[in-house]
């Protein structure tokens, strides 16, 4: 299993993401045109996230919200800028397809803890920080165990559980369960903030109570 974790897993990432980029290129092109038409430009949403050993990289996803602003020129709340098309992209996980490039170039893996916000880094426990000892994933154990509806402590515990026991068969099970979740996306929240809350705010509140 150490050989799988150190060598074979990365080889699979390159082969699968490269093949997927080629096969899905017509779908990606269609999505580029639809996102540009329905939501505007830029087509891609880019955001810095911590990756392997907390090295910062730029995550790429299809945008799911418009740039609608109020009369003062301020962006409207996320819920008002999230269109039905944007909700479809999130629920189907099609907005995640550009991350295949992140995987191909080695910034991410197919399976691993999801890359979270850089601002969350100071709020992990020492045990939870182990999630950054592997490449972040397109999908992971937490995502197939409740996805956005898991409480933060449980979600991060799943990340630690995964890192502690990386195997080929474990990754295969996660892939199969991910396909099931994609087919039945009732456990996918349109607004992740409303389901999971903000980790930084939660941990600050916990510290204030001690």
SSE diagram, text form:
Elements: H1 2-23, H2 25-38, E1 44-50, E2 56-62, H3 78-81, H4 84-92, H5 99-104, E3 109-111, E4 137-139, H6 152-164, H7 168-183, H8 192-196, H9 199-209
Parallel strand pairs: 3-4
Antiparallel strand pairs: 1-2
What labels describe this entry?
globular, 48% helix, 210 residues, two-stranded antiparallel sheet
Written account of the structure:
This protein is mainly alpha-helical and 210 residues long. It has one domain (2-205). It has nine helices and four strands. The chain has helices at 2-23, 25-38, 78-81, 84-92, 99-104, 152-164, 168-183, 192-196, 199-209; strands at 44-50, 56-62, 109-111, 137-139. A hairpin with a 5-residue loop joins β1 (44-50) and β2. The longest helix is centred in the first third of the chain and has 22 residues, at 2-23. The chain is globular.
- Give the number of DSSP strands: 4
Please, what is the average pLDDT? 89
> In what range is the share of β-strand residues?
5-15%
Q: Helix and strand string, N-terminal first?
A: HHEEHHHEEHHHH
Largest sheet, in brief, is: 2 strands, antiparallel
- The radius of gyration is 18 Å
State the domain count: 1
Gross morphology is globular
What share of residues is helical? Answer: 40-55%
The count of helical stretches stands at 9
**Uncertain runs with pLDDT below 50, 5 residues or more?**
none
**Strand order of the main beta sheet, please?**
1-2
Query: What class would the helix/strand composition place it in?
Result: mainly alpha
N-to-C CA distance: 41 Å
